[in-house]
Each structure stands twice: as structure tokens, then as C-alpha cells.
Amino acid sequence: MTSKPTPPDGLVIVDKPSGFTSHDVVAKMRGIAKTRRVGHAGTLDPMATGVLVLGVEKATKLLGHLALTEKEYLGTVRLGQNTVTDDAEGEITSSTDASKVTREAVDTAIAKLTGDIMQVPSRVSAIKINGVRSYKRAREGEEFDIPARPVTVSSFTVYDIRDAVAEDGTPVLDLVVSVVCSSGTYIRALARDLGADLGVGGHLTALRRTRVGPYKLDAAKTLDQLQQELTVMPIAEAAAAAFPRWDVDARRAKLLTNGVRLEMPEEYAGTGAVAVFGPEGRFLALVEEQRGKAKSLAVFG
Questions:
Q1: What does this protein do (predicted)?
Q2: One domain for residues 89 and 191
Q3: Does the annotation mark 45 as catalytic?
Q4: Which residues make Cβ contacts (< 8 Å) with residue 178, sequence separation at least 6?
Q5: Which end of the chain is least crowded, N or C, by CB within 10 Å?
Q6: Residues 15, 45, 86, 87: which is the catalytic one?
């Protein structure tokens, strides 16, 4: 009897196709990797394409920490129309001639949405309000408020402004933008708020995520490519790319894996999760500094 091949431990960087939910991609990957232990580091809307980081087997323990990293997007914002969902998937709720909006006005409005801002997520987001997902409440026609949350938009750049005409004949403007932002930032909420500030409404018509933390689009594979050949970034390489690295000797490695809280060098104070490597580059654990000592977040070695 042949033994079943062991699924690999590591990250898979997927170039998500449009029309798939993040859960659809996880389900596909379970089939490709032949294991139930697959998760993702932060969702991507069905309309959006691009980088979706998946963890297979032991690497699922990294995902919660990776989800907190910075993200980068390329997108198209249509000024002149609002939609129910703040993106092109939803029904249009208003149309306003946007042809008179100037580049100067766009730049001024974008400056207000850059830096540390308070953002109200889209009503059809997966945010939970009193334990119920916002999109579920919206679908059932409930009236409810979503509290604003602090997010950081490190950069919001307009590459191109194109005149266009919407299907209903309204003159609109399409902005090609790039955004670098903190985890939890909704790009379609930026499109909505930009349109609201300019007085013409706005929504997102296209979105491609080009980076999650250190993982970029050039390392991503489509589901078809992964079906042909499963490309997994080994867990040690993935951790070294995403977190500060702390190398320890064999004695400390043994103490750490036995649950002893080691003294941590001062340089790691306040850095969040730190990847600990033992002799021969073996990835041992993710820890964080707490009162000068290493508090274990997840053990791998």
C-alpha cells in the first residue's frame, strides 16, 4: 500500500481571479494541496484580483500575524456614480455629471484621504456589527450604522484621469490610482468618500492587489498554474521575509522550544512578531517581546 504524500508546509501566493471569493480559492487549494489545513491571510473581494496569501499545513499558524501587514493596490475609481456596494458589483443609486471636476479638486480631496484617517467600512463588508456580518444586515434591508475605524493610507496616487460616459449617458471620470495602506482599509470606501467629497459620488470599478507585506504579484501564481505545479514558499523563507529575524544558539533553541521565556535583545522591543531561527537556519517560533522576554505566539520547530 502506498502512503499518501505529505502536504507541504508553507505559503502559497495566489493571483486570485475575478469572480472568486477568498473562500473559493481556499477550497480550490485544499483540492490542489490535498489537505484540509489551508487558510488565507486576509480576504479579497470577489471583484478584485491579485495577491492572496494562503497558508498550507503548519503555515496556517503564520496567517493571523501576516494579515496585519501593509497592502498595495492598483484600481480604477469612477467619479459621477454611487452604487449600493461602493463598487461595480452593486446597483447604481445616483448619477451626476463629473466632467467639470478638476485635477486640482481631485488632488485636494485625495490629500484628505491620505495619512491616518477614520474610515467607515462599506455596508456590504464582512465587518461584524453586534455579532452579525454587515453585508447580511444590508441584504436584509436593515438600517444600521457602522462605526468609523482608524486606518492608515501611506500613499494614494492618481496616475491617470480619463473622460468616459456611463451606460446611462452620464459624463463620468475614471481615475487610475494606486494605494498603499494598512490592513483593514477598504479601497471601495476610499472611492465612495472621494466621490462624496467632490460632490459627484464615486465607486470602484476595478481592483488588483499587487502586494501583501513582502509578498508581491511577481511571486504569485494563478490557480491553473498551481494545478499544474504546486509552488509553495517554505515556511522558514516566508517567515524570514515577513518578520524581523532573531538567530539563537542550540542551547537557547532548546530552552525556547521547551517553553522557557528567553531574555530578548533590546532591538526587538516593540517590533511585534519576531521570527526565531536556530542553528542551521531552522525556523523555531514566532515570538514577541514582553517585558524584555520572548512571549511565544506560535511554535514551529
A1: Responsible for synthesis of pseudouridine from uracil-55 in the psi GC loop of transfer RNAs.
A2: yes
A3: yes
A4: 72, 73, 74, 75, 155, 156, 157, 159, 210
A5: N
A6: 45
